[in-house]
Design goal:
Elements (H helix, E strand, L loop, with lengths): L5 H18 L1 H21 L7 E7 L4 H6 L9 E6 L2 H9 L5 E5 L3 H7 L5 E8 L3 H25 L9 E8 L6 H22 L2 H8 L1 H5 L6 H30 L8 H26 L2 H18 L12 H7 L3 H15 L3 H24 L7
Parallel strand pairs: 1-2, 1-3, 4-5
Antiparallel strand pairs: 3-4
Helix pairs in contact: 7-10, 7-11, 7-12, 7-14, 8-11, 10-11, 10-15, 11-12, 11-14, 11-15, 14-15
Length: 378
């Protein structure tokens, strides 16, 4: 008898679960929209390819042969070269992040090419090593373009290369050793602060709403701003401890250089941590549900910080729409700031610009979170 009733019981339970699933909009969004968004984002929006990489070309030898040697840098979708009058100007552009590399043709290029002295003519390539993947790709592109010209010169000479060919002498800035850890560890610091910030505090206010304890505070003299500060302070202390652990690991465990001021690194990181904590509190206050708050915090903070902040992908190589979205994220601005401070030093335009943006986010989120805690019942 019990076996004959299985189809009826199973169908009844199945109808109940389907109805419950359809009523839970957050689960539906995670189950259907998230995979579709990830497929479109990774398949269309994100790419490891390097395209239109800006280069500064310095011609210290103005001969026609020298100009012809670097002519192959133009006319390709992978490189975007532009002239610089001299090396100091090109170096300033590299430090400011306007270009990813410098191609320098020395004054003795034509003479060495004709005489074949010391292995032939040389072209210097200075790379921004703060993104080791991009730097290695650019080295291949530039070397290939100049090598192709050298091969054509050999074919014109009947198979005998002019002089002894052209050698590209590479020099890496900001990451002389070419170690990927130097590039990854500052980015991991951003992810850690994002996770402990937004994800942990996203549960605080929602938990109070679910337990009914927040309503009891509405009859007290406590103000919304004071409640926000009280919930923020303990997690700022925890975040400061985690930040110190990350900095100690970066310096002594992974041996990542800290060329910028340690004080500025700490203060900038605490500012971003404040933004992350306030974002979590705002999400918690809006959703008033712990499960939904944790899901939204994960989808709007940690995952975008990992994929759209420049941690993995070069944002100049993504579509304009994805790039516009990435620059809305606080993590994108902190990513640029922390990598500059670790690897390049105190670049004050970057420090001031990124800090001002993060301060704006902190003020806006503090105001928005305070609005979610008005003393009224629904």
């Amino acid at each position: 008898m019990s076996g004959s009733g299985f189809p009826r019981r199973f169908l009844a339970l199945l109808r109940k679960e389907v109805r419950q699933m359809l009523r839970d909009k957050s689960n539906m969004a995670v189950g259907l929209l998230l995979p579709a968004a990830l497929i479109l984002l990774f398949g269309y929006g994100l790419s490891f390819d390097v395209k239109h990489a800006p280069l500064a070309v310095v011609m210290e030898d103005a001969s026609p042969g020298a100009r012809e040697a670097v002519q192959g840098l133009w006319g390709t979708a992978y490189l975007a070269p532009s002239w610089s009058a001299n090396m100091p100007e090109a170096e300033a552009r590299l430090r400011a992040g306007e270009v990813d590399a410098i191609v320098r043709v020395p004054p003795d290029f034509s003479r060495r090419l004709a005489a074949g002295q010391g292995g032939g003519a040389r072209v210097q390539l200075v790379l921004n090593g703060s993104n080791s993947t991009t730097a290695q790709t650019l080295e291949g592109y530039v070397g290939g373009a100049i090598g192709l010209w050298s091969q054509r010169q050999a074919e014109r000479a009947g198979g005998k290369p002019a002089g002894a060919g052209v050698e590209v002498v590479q020099r890496m800035w900001f990451n002389e050793a070419g170690i990927s850890t130097w590039y990854l560890v500052p980015g991991l610091l951003v992810l850690v602060l994002t996770l402990i910030g937004a994800f942990l505090t996203s549960l605080l206010i929602a938990r109070e709403w679910e337990r009914g304890t927040l309503e009891s505070l509405f009859v007290t003299p406590v103000r919304p701003g004071e409640l926000v500060l009280a919930k923020l302070a303990p997690y700022l202390a925890i975040g400061a401890i985690d930040l110190l652990l990350c900095l100690l690991a970066a310096r002594f465990l992974f041996e990542v250089p800290m060329r910028g001021s340690l004080l500025i690194i700490f203060l900038g990181s605490m500012l971003y941590l404040t933004v992350s904590l306030l974002l979590g509190l705002f999400i918690s206050g809006v959703t008033r549900n712990q499960f939904q708050a944790s899901q939204i915090a994960l989808l709007t903070s940690f995952m975008p910080a990992m994929m759209l902040s420049g941690f993995v992908f070069d944002l100049r190589n993504v579509p304009a729409v994805v790039r516009a979205v990435s620059y809305v994220l606080p993590a994108t601005h902190f990513m640029g700031l922390i990598k500059t401070l670790f690897l390049a030093g105190n670049d004050w335009p970057t420090i001031l610009r990124s800090s001002a943006i993060l301060c704006g986010y902190a003020l806006a989120l503090a105001w928005a979170t305070r609005r979610t805690l008005k003393k009224k019942l629904d």
